[in-house]
C-alpha cells in the first residue's frame, strides 16, 4: 500500500517496525485478555532509545522532534500494538524539557533517558470539572519549603507503571485571578513517595485495556522545588503538552487507520462468498477506499501540526484539527474493518475487536470531538463564545 508518508523517516520506520515485529499481535492480544501491561514491549522500546526520542542529546536522549516521535507512535499502532501504554512518556517529557528548570532537567532527564525513571503520567482531569479545566478543585498551598496538595483526579493513566507524574493544581483561588486560566501551576510528583504520604489510587476498569485511575490527595506534601516553571502559569505550560499529545495521538490514529485498511483489504481479497471474493463487491470496496482517502488526508494535517510544533510556532489549530481528522478517519476504517470481517470481526483472535475498542477512545480522549469543534468555531472562525 503506497501512502502519503511513504519514505518519510524511513530509517526510523524500519527500526521501529523491526522492534515491533518481535511483539506480534498475539503478544498484544494476550496482554489485552489478561488486562496486563506490555512491560517487555515498553522495556524494549526504552532500551532501544525510542522512549527518549524527545530528550535533548545533552541529557542522554536522541534530541529528535515531535515529527519523529509521532512516527514512532504511528508505527507501534500500525504494527498492531497500542501506544496508549507508553505515549505519556513522549508528551510529558516535552513539558519538562520546555518548561522545567535546568536543575530539574539535569536531575530527571538523564535518568528517564536511561530507563531508570518513567514519566508516563499527567494528572489534569477531575470528576466535577470535566473538560472545563480552569474549574479544577485540586489545590496546592505553599507551606515553607513544601506544597500541600488536596483534591481528586480521575482517569489518570499509567500511574502503576510510572515513577513520576505531572500534576495540575490551583495555586490561587479562581475568584482571586484576573483570567480563569491564571493561578494554575504544574508540579512533578514522585508517585512512590506520594502513595506513602497522602495520595491514594483507585484503578478504573474500562472498555480498553488502558491502565487508568482515580487519585485522591489528602494533605500530600511535595518539595517546593517540584514546581515546574513559574507559579500560576501552569495552564499555559500544560497546553504545550496537550498540543504535543494531540499530534501524537493523531499519528497513532493514522497508524490504526492503516492497520485496519491493510487488515480488511487482505481479508476482502481472500474471503469468498457467493462464489467470489467479497472485495469484488463495490459495496465492500467503497467504504474501505473512503476510509483510506480520509486517513491520507488526516496524515497531511498531522505532518503540518508536527512541522509547526517543531518550529516552535503556534500549532493549537493544526494539532486539534489533526487529532479530529485522524480520530474520525481511524474510526471509519475500524468500522469498515469490523463490518467486512463479518462475525469474525468479533473474534478476539483476529485482533479487530481489540483495535476497534482501542481506537474508539480517541473520539473522547484526550479531548472530545465536540470540544475540538468548539475550539475551531470560536478561536479560528471567530464565532461567539459558547461557554
Ligand atoms: C481511558 C482514558 C484515559 C484517560 N487518561 C487521562 C490522563 O492520563 N490524564 C488526564 O488528565 N485525563 C485523562 N483522561 C480524561 C479525558 O481527557 C477526558 O475524559 C476527556 O477530556 C473528556 O472529559 P470528561 O470525561 O470530563 O467529559 P465531560 O467534560 O464531562 O464531557 C462529556 C461529554 O459532553 C460533551 N461536552 C461537554 N461540554 C460541551 C460543550 N460545551 N459543548 C458540546 N459538548 C460538550 C463532551 O464533548 C463529551 O462528549 C482519560 C480518559 C479516558 C477515558
TrEMBL record:
Domain (Acyl-CoA oxidase/dehydrogenase middle): residue spans on this chain: 121-219
Required cofactor(s): FAD
Cross-referenced InterPro entries: Acyl-CoA_DH_CS, Acyl-CoA_Oxase/DH_mid-dom, Acyl-CoA_Oxase/DH_mid-dom_sf, AcylCo_DH-like_C, AcylCo_DH/oxidase_C, AcylCoA_DH/ox_N, AcylCoA_DH/ox_N_sf, AcylCoA_DH/oxidase_NM_dom_sf
Residues annotated as domain Acyl-CoA dehydrogenase/oxidase N-terminal: 9-116
Record carries keyword Ribosomal protein: no
Pfam family, one: Acyl-CoA_dh_M
Annotated EC: 1.3.99.-
The keyword Flavoprotein is annotated on this UniProt entry: yes
An example Gene Ontology molecular-function term: flavin adenine dinucleotide binding
Domain Acyl-CoA dehydrogenase/oxidase C-terminal: 232-366
Keywords: FAD, Flavoprotein, Oxidoreductase
Family: Belongs to the acyl-CoA dehydrogenase family.
Name by which UniProt lists this protein: Acyl-CoA dehydrogenase fadE12
